[in-house]
């Protein structure tokens, strides 16, 4: 239930087309054209990666909407053409094209947009302020939520956290991986990408690690303090209920669906 008492928790993976999942996540001889239909019945969200590399057709977004359950939500990686540039203020045309590409065909299943930056992109306050000015709060009457996935140590700055909080933009939490971890909650939702699945774990993560991430997701949703994660500006951290989007990404990718499903079971 989403509301003042608790946020909605959604758990998933990145994409749904991955050959090693056939026969492990997907049953043997399961039709490839029905993989999204299957995945969306076992997960509660999926992060679409293809939008990072190029435009998708409006018909594709409409098809994805129709193939998934009513309460399913997609998050989208925004196009790299908007984020992989020296001057972010010049990304206006790319941002506009993205929102005109058909993403609204997802209707109520459109979740936050993940703006992912290169590992070489450093924090510059003016640069990012001007970029955030380009991100619409609504398109076609539909509210749009944004998340920033930054991958350079310079972003571990109170100025960056304050900017994101002022704009109600989430900072993507990159956890259990090699990227800087910023767990400051700056938006009405939390966007976490968990990167630690391992080949030698049956479910990708140990039972204890899955219990820990389930507890963290519940804490975020319930507005409680989350332990064991690095925050940049602890003085400014507020504890209010938030929606949670948590994805098993990278790591040993073959095990990501198993880890996500195990986490969903713990949250029932």
In terms of topology, how is this protein built?
Elements: E1 9-14, H1 35-42, E2 45-48, H2 50-53, H3 58-67, E3 73-77, H4 80-83, H5 92-99, E4 110-116, H6 125-132, E5 138-139, E6 142-143, E7 146-149, H7 158-166, E8 170-171, E9 173-175, E10 189-194, H8 207-222, E11 243-248, H9 256-267
Parallel strand pairs: 1-2, 1-11, 2-3, 3-4, 4-7, 7-8, 9-10, 10-11
Antiparallel strand pairs: 5-6
Helix pairs in contact: 8-9
Short synopsis of the structure:
With 268 residues, this protein is α/β, with parallel strands linked by helices. The chain has helices at residues 35-42, 50-53, 58-67, 80-83, 92-99, 125-132, 158-166, 207-222, 256-267; strands at 9-14, 45-48, 73-77, 110-116, 138-139, 142-143, 146-149, 170-171, 173-175, 189-194, 243-248.
């Amino acid at each position: 239930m989403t509301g003042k008492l608790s946020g909605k928790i959604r758990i998933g993976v990145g994409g749904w087309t991955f050959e090693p999942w056939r026969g492990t996540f997907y049953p043997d001889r399961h039709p490839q054209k029905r993989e999204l239909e299957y995945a969306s019945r076992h997960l509660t969200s999926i992060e679409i990666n293809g939008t990072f590399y190029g435009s998708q057709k409006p018909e594709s977004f409409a098809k994805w909407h129709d193939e998934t359950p009513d309460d399913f939500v997609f998050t989208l990686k925004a196009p790299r053409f908007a984020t992989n540039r020296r001057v972010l203020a010049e990304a206006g045309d790319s941002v506009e094209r993205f929102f005109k590409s058909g993403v609204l065909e997802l209707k109520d299943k459109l979740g936050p947009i993940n703006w992912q930056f290169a590992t070489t992109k450093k924090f510059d306050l003016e640069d990012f302020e001007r970029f955030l000015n380009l991100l619409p709060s609504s398109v076609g009457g539909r509210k749009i939520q944004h998340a920033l996935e930054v991958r350079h140590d310079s972003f571990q700055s109170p100025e960056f956290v304050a900017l994101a909080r002022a704009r109600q933009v989430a900072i993507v939490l990159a956890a259990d991986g090699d990227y800087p971890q910023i767990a400051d909650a700056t938006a009405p939702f939390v966007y976490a990408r968990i990167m630690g699945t391992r080949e030698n774990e049956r479910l990708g993560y140990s039972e204890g690690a899955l219990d820990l991430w389930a507890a963290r997701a519940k804490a975020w949703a319930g507005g409680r303090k989350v332990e064991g994660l690095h925050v940049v500006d602890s003085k400014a951290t507020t504890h209010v209920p938030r929606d949670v989007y948590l994805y098993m990404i990278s790591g040993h990718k073959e095990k990501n669906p198993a880890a996500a499903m195990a986490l969903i079971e713990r949250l029932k």
